[in-house]
Amino acid sequence: MASNNTDIRFLKGVGEKRAEILKKKGIDTIGTLLRFYPRDYIDYSNVTPIMRAPFDENVCIKAKVTSYVEESKKGPNMKLYRFIAEDESGAMQVTLFNQTYLAKRINFGSEYLFYGKVRGNFVMRSMTSPDIFESGFSGIHPIYRASANMSSKNIERIVKTALSTNIGDDPLPESIRENNNLSDLSFALSNIHFPKTNESLIRAKRRLVFEELFILQTGLALLKNKKRSLAGSVVSQNFKAEFEEKLAFELTAAQSRVIDECFNDMSSGRVMNRLVQGDVGSGKTAVAAAVCYIMARNGFQSAFMAPTEILAEQHFATLSNILGDSGVRCGLLTGSLTAKQKREVKEKLASGEIDIIVGTHALLTDNVEFARLGLAVTDEQHRFGVAQRAKLAAKGNNPHTLVMSATPIPRTLALILHGDLDISIIDEYPKGRQAIDTYLVNSSYHTRLYNFIKKHIAEGRQGYIVCPLVEENEELDIKSATQVYEELIENEFKGYRVALLHGKMSGKQKDAVMRDFKDGKTDLLISTTVIEVGVDVPNAVVMVIENADRFGLSQLHQLRGRIGRGEYKSSCVLVSDNKSKETKERLKVITETCDGFKIADEDLRLRGPGDFLGNRQHGLPDLKIADFANDMETLRLAGEQVKVLLKNDPRLKAEENKPLRDAIIELYKKLNEN
C-alpha cells in the first residue's frame, strides 16, 4: 500500500506528466501532497437568495431553471447559452460561453446550485459562467492553488485518493494531543481538505497549526541544545575594562551588559551562539570590537564578516581606530584587493600575525586559513545564508559565534527566527544621539521639500531621496528612482552633484556610488532601499521617502536610520498621497517614535511577519498553515509544551516520540537541501 514517503508519481491518477507539474509546486511525495493545504473553501450549503446576493462577490444560489436554454453566436468561435433561473426571491439570467456540454445538461424545471458572482440591478440579475451542480450537491469544498495545467479540481481528486493511503504515524505524541485537546492526524488531514462542518475545519486547522509550530520549535531547541553541548575556546580573562580605556566615549549600560553576556558564554567552556539585536546607531560595532579584543588578549583570532566591501572597510576603520595602539593587529580581506595583497593577508592570518580579520564573502574561500580562530562575527546576519555562516565557523575548532542585526524584531518572533541562538538586546542609545524629526506630507509639498534639501546642501550637508522602485511600472502610479533622478538632474537639482543608486547595479558600481557619497563628492543620492543597511555618512541630514505607504514600518525605520549619524540635527519626510485611514494611522507611528522595537511590534500587528521574514535567508522552512501574525498564542503554547517534552526526553529517545523525531529530521533535511 502506498505510504507517506511514496513518490507522488506512483499515486493512482497521477503518473509521470502530472508528477512533474506537482513537483514544481513542491509536492514530491504523498506526504507533501497531504500537506498541500487548500487556500480557501466554498461552502455550498450556505445558500443566498438571488435578490439578497451582494454584487461582485462569490455566492452560492439554489434556483430552478424556468426557461429553455437559448443558443446564439457571437463571432465565428463563440457560442453563448442563456437561460433563466428563479428562486422565491426573484430571477436571474445565466450565461455560459462555449460550454456546450454543460448547456446540454441543463434541464427545464430542474433545480441546480449556481456558484459565481451576481451582477445586474435590483429588478433583473445575472450570473456569467458559474459553476453548476445538481441541487443535492452540498458541503464545504476545498480550493487549491491551481496553475494553467493543474486545476483545483484535479488536485482535489488526487488528494481524495491520497487520503485513502497509509498517511503515516502521528508526529504529535498522544500526551501532547491530550494536554492540548488536539485531534489525531487522520481527523486533521481529512477535515482540512474535506471538512464535514465548519467546526471540524476549525478543529483540524488548530491541530495542524499547533503541530507545525511545535515541530519547528522542537527542532530549534534540539539544535540549540546540541550547540550548547559543544566545547568552545575557553576565555579565562575579561579585558572589558582595558578595552573601555581605549574608547573616546563611554559605553552605555546596555552595551556593557551585552559584552558581559558574551564573556560569560565564552568563559563557560561551551560554545557561544549569540545574536545581538540593536537599533541602528545603538553601538553594536563597539560591542563586537570589545568581544574581538577580549578574544585577542586571550590568544584567539576573530573573523568579522560584513555583507559589502564598503561596510567591511568601515568596520576595519572603526576597529583600527579603537585598537590602533593596543597591540591587537587588524587585517582586511575583500575581493577588490590585488592578488599580492590577498596573499600577504592570508599568510599573516595563517601564521597568527593577524588577530582580527575583517572581510566580505572573501573570508569563505577555501584557501583562507586561521592559526587559532576563536570567534566568528557576522554583521547584518540576514544578508548571509545559514550555510555561509556555518562555512566561516568551520574554519576553526567550534569557534564562538556572534551575529549582529540592526533589524529590531519582536522578541517572540526573534525566538523563532533565531531559535538556535541566545539573544542579547541593546535597548539604549549612546549619549548625544539626537532624535530624528519625522514628518508625513503629501506630494503637493515637493517644491518645499526640494528647497529644504537645497538649504541643507548650501550649508555643506547631504541628503537622500528614496523610491520604492528601480524602474517605472505601468501598473503602479509610482515614480521610480530612475525617473526621479532623470527629472531632478534636468530641473530642480540641475547643476547639483546628484547620483543614482539601485539594486540592479553591480556590486562595484554600488560601492563606487556609496564611496563618493561618503567622501562628500555627491550632494544628493537618489536611491532604492539598497541604502537600508550599511554605511555611516554622518554628514547626511535629510531624507525624503517617496510613496512611503509602499514600505513596512520596520523598513521605513531602517531607512531613516541612515541619517542622524553625526552632530547635525536630521529630518526625515514621508511622502504619501494614500488617503486610506489605516495607512495614515500606520505611517503616523513612524512620526511619533524612534524606538525600533515599538515599531517592530506595531509592524507585526499591522502587517504580519512579512517584513521580518520576507525573502531573507533566515534559514527557516516556509510555514504551510501557521501564520506568525495570527497564531502567536499557539506559538507560545507550543513552545511551553516543547519545554515539557524535552525536560522528560531531551533527545526524543522514547518510542512515543519517534514519529516526532522523524518529522524533525525530514524538516531539516529539506531545509538543508534548499
What count of helical segments does DSSP give?
23
Instruction: Tell me what portion of residues adopts beta-strand conformation.
Output: 15-25%
What kind of sheet is the major sheet? 7 strands, parallel
Strands ordered across the widest β-sheet = 12-13-11-14-15-10-16
List the uncertain runs.
Answer: 614-618
Q: Which CATH first-tier class of the domain at 240-426 would you pick?
A: Alpha Beta
Shape: globular
CATH homologous superfamily identity of the domain at 240-426: P-loop containing nucleotide triphosphate hydrolases
Mean pLDDT comes to 87
Number of strands: 22
Terminal residue distance: 30 Å
Please give the CATH architecture of the domain at 240-426: 3-Layer(aba) Sandwich
Q: Give Rg in angstroms.
A: 30 Å
Describe it for me?
The structure is a single chain. By secondary structure, this protein is of the alpha/beta class. Among the domains are: 46-138, Nucleic acid-binding proteins (OB fold (Dihydrolipoamide Acetyltransferase, E2P)), CATH 2.40.50.140; 240-426, Rossmann fold (3-Layer(aba) Sandwich); 437-593, 3-Layer(aba) Sandwich (Rossmann fold). Helix content is 39%, strand content 18%. The chain has 23 helices and 22 strands. The chain has a 7-stranded parallel β-sheet, sandwiched between helices. Strands 17-22-21-18-20-19 form a 6-stranded parallel β-sheet, sandwiched between helices. A hairpin with a 4-residue loop joins strand 6 and strand 7. Helix 10 (284-297) crosses helix 11. The longest helix has 32 residues, at 198-229. The model is unreliable at 614-618 (pLDDT under 50).
